[in-house]
Amino acid sequence: MSGTVRLTAAQAMMRWLSVQMTEEGERFIEGCWAIFGHGNVAGIGEALHGIGDAFPTWRGQNEQTMAHAAIAYAKTMRRRRAQAVTSSIGPGATNMVTAAALAHVNRLPVLFIPGDVFANRRPDPVLQQIEDFDDGTVSANDCFRPVSRYFDRIQRPEQLLTALPGALRVMTDPANCGPVTLAFCQDVQAEAYDWPESFFEPKTWRIRRPEPDPVEVAEAVRLIAAASRPVIVAGGGVLYSGAEAELVDFATRHGIPVVETQAGKSALSWEHELNFGSPGVTGSACANELAARADLVIGVGTRFQDFTTGSWTVFAEPGRKLLSINLAGYDAQKHGATPVVGDARVALQRIGAELGDRRFDWHDPAARRDWHEAVRHVTAAPAEGNALPTDAQVIGAVQRVARGNTVAMCAAGTMPGALQVLWQAAPGGYHMEYGYSCMGYEVAGAMGIKLAAPEREVICFVGDGSYMMANSELATAVMRRVPFTIVLTDNRGYGCINRLQIECGGAEFNNMYKDSNVEVQPEIDFVAHAASMGAHAEKASGIADLEAKILAARSRDIPTVIVIDTDAVPGLDVGGHWWDVAVPQAGGPERLREARARYEANSARQRIFD
């Protein structure tokens, strides 16, 4: 019969987490990011110190960005491992809500452990406590409820006996994966309890591969066999399933062209003859041509976000059908799709076996070659000696010096769309947070990628606006000697949204510094700023110098920040598609009326259901 061991609730939590293992014999929760404050320093802080390297602690600079690092780690690990994040009870906790939303949208596992108010309520209201005048059970941590896959408030030590397994159940469930929040009342953290010793026996968590229903497989086979021009939309589920080889085999054997979402990009090498790039708003010309003609759209691990679908105008063929292979029934049945609920790898194997030798081969190889020529043209170095480069030309510079182990990463602004259209990704060489398009993910995310894949060269594209929003984990990367390269494009404002503002008929207003209500135009020295945090920082004089500085960065054991001035005005002039951003219907100048007319014409082409 098992005995008991007396520990505080916080000590028990950390001991339990330290013995939750993957099938490869590693901790599923690698360790914990922590910023201590009122509500977690005495209980959780003491427990983390006591357990030491058995469950390591890492200090962050901002609760949101250290959570971003944990999310990037989990994404790079393909959801096979994760990290925890703890904060104080008030602003520290609410700082993490944005990160929780990011993880929720992207279906990524991270364990949030914010401190909470006193369960016994004796000292209420305590420092940083949010009081609801009509509900005594509410705390600031209730903000996590809509952005958590699983939420629990620990108000008694013994509640951990069910809450902790519940948390890992969700984080290791491929169909329901996402962030978990265990709001931990601060007095309960310090309360002792006699725990069963069996609770701390190591446990291995296996990530299952759900088999698709045979009836759904048969219906998928019938749809594909009856099609003339099918196209595959490869999403992030291909990568999380480890189904890259199955995707290549399925597409090649049946002659079906493939287009990639932001999350699915790099599942198939850009050099593969069936890879036609990305569809939709940030799509390649050849991919959007295929999408417009396809009579069957086969989604594999995608939730068909509006950028992928051109706000449901890109898949324009009359009578076209939608087939969606997805682990989550919620995603598989969107927009009237015929669902195949199951693991991507298994589903492709089952469907492929039933299709036999059926081939299509309807794609145009010349269109793909023309597209790559267009990419080479717009990413070439500027012809004029001192002209400010475009974002496309910056991408071209990085592309020319990239290696097979390079990971290009980004999150918000101009670069995500430009990279999806233009970056030629080697397998596994692309990391984009574009489900939530969260400014400030970039620097912390680059660190998380490098921590998960130290053998990879990580190149972070970040605009000056996003860098200004969240850059402090650069200091963490310096302290921990985590090397990666930041290419900081300075266009002196929010250039991406400024272009969208113009496209929607608006005046240039409040996006670029020159159009903002300021007395003095800022001249921000990003080199000095990055250097002050210990990074190696320098400014590139042009595209050739940028290439040379990226090569030199490979010899360093700290982050390198390379700043380059860019032109905020030009778009890509290649690829792209309409995006549904509502334009005011009345009250504006002629340019606004013209934009509204374009909006109404495009809206009329939307096909939400067939």
TrEMBL record:
Q: Which family does it belong to?
A: Belongs to the TPP enzyme family.
Q: Has keyword Lyase?
A: no
Q: What is this protein called?
A: 3D-(3,5/4)-trihydroxycyclohexane-1,2-dione acylhydrolase (Decyclizing)
- InterPro entries the record matches: DHS-like_NAD/FAD-binding_dom (IPR029035), Myo_inos_IolD (IPR030817), THDP-binding (IPR029061), Thiamin_PyroP_enz_cen_dom (IPR012000), Thiamin_PyroP_enz_TPP-bd_dom (IPR012001), TPP-bd_CS (IPR000399), TPP_enz (IPR045229), TPP_enzyme_TPP-bd (IPR011766)
Q: Name one GO molecular function term.
A: acetolactate synthase activity
**Record carries keyword Hydrolase:** yes
Per the UniProt entry, the signal peptide is none
